[in-house]
Amino acid sequence: MAEQELKPAFSGIRVADFAWVGVGPLVSKYLADHGAEVIRIESATYPETLRRAGPFFENTPGLDRSGYYANFNSSKICATLNLKHPRGNEIAKRIVEKCDVVTESYTPGTMSRLGIDYEALRAVRPDIIMISMPLFGQTGPWAPWMGYGHVLQAAAGFNHMTGWPDEPPIGAGTAYTDFLVPHFAAIALIAALDHRRRTGEGQWIDFGQYEAAVNGLWTTMLDWSANGHEQSRLGNRDIEAAPHGAYRCKDGKWLTISCTTEEHWTALKAALGRPEWCDLERMRRRWQRLNEQKEIDRHLQFWADDNTRRPDEPPEFRGENPEVPPQRKYTSYELMEFLQKFGVPAGVVQSPEDLRADPQLSHRGHYWTLQHPVMGERIYDGAAFRLSRTPANLHKAAPVLGEDTEYVYRQVVGMEEDEFIELLADGAFE
Amino acid sequence: MPLPVPTPHPRGPLAGYRVLDLADEKGQFGTRLLGELGADVIKIEAPREGDPVRRSGPFYRGEDGPETSIAWWALNAGKRSVTCQLRLEVGRQLLHRLVAVSDIVVETNPPGRAAELGLDYATLAAVNPGIILVSITNFGQTGPYKDYLATDITAAAMGGLMYLNGDDEHGPVRTTAPQAYTQVNTQAMVGAMTALFARGTNGGVGQHVDVSMQEAAANALDNASATWDLLGINNRGPGLRRMVGGNIGARYLYETSDGWLAALSAGGLFGPNANTLIDWLDENGEAGELVQPTWRERLSTMTPIEPEELLYLEERFAAFCSRGKKLDLVTEAQRRGLGWAPVQSPSELAACEQLGARGFWTTVHHDDLDASFAYPGAPWKLSATPWAQRGRAPHIGEHNADVYGELLGLEEAELRRLRLRMVI
């Protein structure tokens, strides 16, 4: 088959996306950016939380002005539907009849109350794949609990594992699990789609965000169950590696240095110019260095202080004594490059601003620029993976509310014009 | 009769697919997930010393050894293991025979190195045009940083994740359970699944999936890229507080008599549910001035308040939380319609009633140690094609006879020859 004839991965797949906020829309974004027709089904009466959350274009709130909503909904279309309208549930089913996938993230029981749970939808579309993604899953005493990713990260152990020892469990400065569990959900959903293609069988996926998140704790849970060892937050140190930390540079940025192998440590010693402390007997082996982290951090912070420069300082620094040759001073980025040349894993702690200017992300085309009807040219995140033959195509900006209502009901559902206008006048699409 | 390792899983959605795992920490966890969905995952290790992750701690009972690494167990449970020396031509030929009967290959070599091991896409596609090669690297296959070394903290820094954590006093901080690794493992598998689905869409054509750990971290930044793009503000770690669209909002973490709880907007004191919480504080004599109608009106309509007023709210709420136990407080809050959660540690997660009621933990038997341990269980419940844990992680080369003998049909004499030449 000639290269140009290849279709996007999810070509021909249509998704009815009833989900909201972060997790659900990030799952369907993968499908939309790789060729599926994803229909956001939203209410104009009770607008999606994220449309009401900043940052807003021109710092002015508005349902079509949220960058938060926009970034998670590239390549999608949007129809409005009032599920509380007497015919709301019938209309929803008529949409689902034309779809392959249904995504939702309501509190358990909501879809049943609306008459569009899995059983009801399977009756109109027997091979439908539905994924339900509430915080705590469909069953159990916490199933009705409410909350957002910011508090789920606390329940799931991420706060406990983020911060400094003997200091509060500050957690990630984000709704962290919202940006971890969608990947788990997408893996299961695509696997189910593939199974359907091979067997014709649809299914319902009971996805509890909590359970996926607990799977993201690496060795933490098994260290507890097998060893009875309770891992905890270590600042920027590591249970297994030393040196391992972040060091303040004079240009105001922080540089991370980590040695997880003996090769890294040997390289770091060479880069530092083999100062005496490096060759002390108690620095020789990794398990010895783990006991000396306080001293290692002190040395590396001194080194960063000595070798980095303030933004206004010249690269060559001449000290008080004219006999001593000038010393080279680095920016955090130059120091990173210097350490990398020796073979030391070193990286600058980059801000969102730094990321936009990052030459590597730019080379990769990580950020897409898309034209939004209200917000103008805006930046959208692309996936972390590049498919060589069927690459992602973020083909349009996020939809404005109800942008595609007429298309969805007339073209997708196949509604006659009279009925569409009648329902429109009756408020079914509000 | 001990169960075979791994146990068969013919009902998984990926049953019938085969995955070759030549990955390090950036991919081993992801391939484990594919195994639990039914794929036959074969870990390919260097003869004798085995996979480097076997030398990563923590270790069972603190005893170092290739079969006692808890990192190895956690990332490789339910896989098969074969040994194969890819530095030898014979080894590469053996690998290519496996590639011919596989669907997905996952590798994490630095850019360019894969070709030396016969693992580049052109070579694999010549063997099997339908093969999907997933290459996971620190920064991607090409670009100015492609050769940079990285561990979890490097990618968490360069991808922005650390900048959003931490506080002004201490600076940025990494999550101690490595999240750049977790992010890249899971995002890479979304790429693998998308390529697998594309293969079905396009009559069996495979492709190369190029994954960057830096980008995986950069995709986990909440609304930070939009906030920079729209407002020119860098979201950053506000410690106990929360940053909303560039503004530092109310404190969301509060100490209880037995730990901490998370409750956005000072528990909801600032928001539409303010009256619910003021009533509850009042029942406990903790509401102070907040019972006054003007406070109630201003808080429930979210009228902007002065910083010292916000501090007063937080103090009232902190005093209330400090007298209760976190689970009691959270359970009652949820009953009243407030979305709080407890801050939980590993031991508390292990005892959590919700995870217990869902049958989350799965017991894995280690026949070699004559011991069983609770592993984290199903990340999803699929109604028609259930998730299954498939037993402990394999020993080095445990499945050489199964894979090379039964799958590839090598004779015992040939296997012996390969062993003598240290290919396997």
Share in helix of chain B: 25-40%
Report the biggest beta sheet of chain A as strand number plus sense, adding barrel if it closes: 6 strands, parallel
Helix content of chain A: 25-40%
The overall average pLDDT of chain A, rounded, is 96
Q: Could you name the ranges of chain B where pLDDT drops below 50 across 5 or more consecutive residues?
A: none
Tally of structural domains of chain A = 2
Structural domains of chain B: how many: 2
Q: What spatial order of strands do you see in the largest sheet of chain A?
A: 3-2-1-4-5-6
Produce the secondary structure layout:
The complex is a heterodimer of chains A (430) and B (424).
Chain A: E1 14-17, H1 23-33, E2 37-42, H2 67-71, E3 77-80, H3 88-97, E4 101-104, H4 110-113, H5 118-124, E5 129-132, H6 149-155, H7 181-199, E6 203-206, H8 209-214, H9 220-227, E7 244-248, E8 254-258, H10 262-272, H11 286-289, H12 293-307, E9 316-317, E10 327-328, H13 332-342, E11 346-348, H14 352-357, H15 359-364, E12 367-372, E13 376-381, E14 385-387, H16 405-412, H17 417-425
Parallel strand pairs in A: 1-2, 1-4, 2-3, 4-5, 5-6
Antiparallel strand pairs in A: 7-8, 8-11, 9-10, 12-13
Chain B: E1 18-22, H1 28-36, E2 40-45, H2 70-76, E3 80-83, H3 89-100, E4 104-107, H4 113-116, H5 121-127, E5 132-137, H6 152-158, H7 161-164, H8 179-201, E6 208-212, H9 213-218, H10 224-231, E7 241-244, E8 247-251, E9 253-256, E10 259-262, H11 274-283, H12 293-300, H13 307-322, H14 326-335, E11 341-342, H15 346-350, H16 353-357, E12 362-366, E13 371-375, E14 381-382, H17 400-407, H18 412-420
Parallel strand pairs in B: 1-2, 1-4, 2-3, 4-5, 5-6
Antiparallel strand pairs in B: 7-8, 9-10, 10-11, 12-13
Helix pairs in contact in B: 1-8
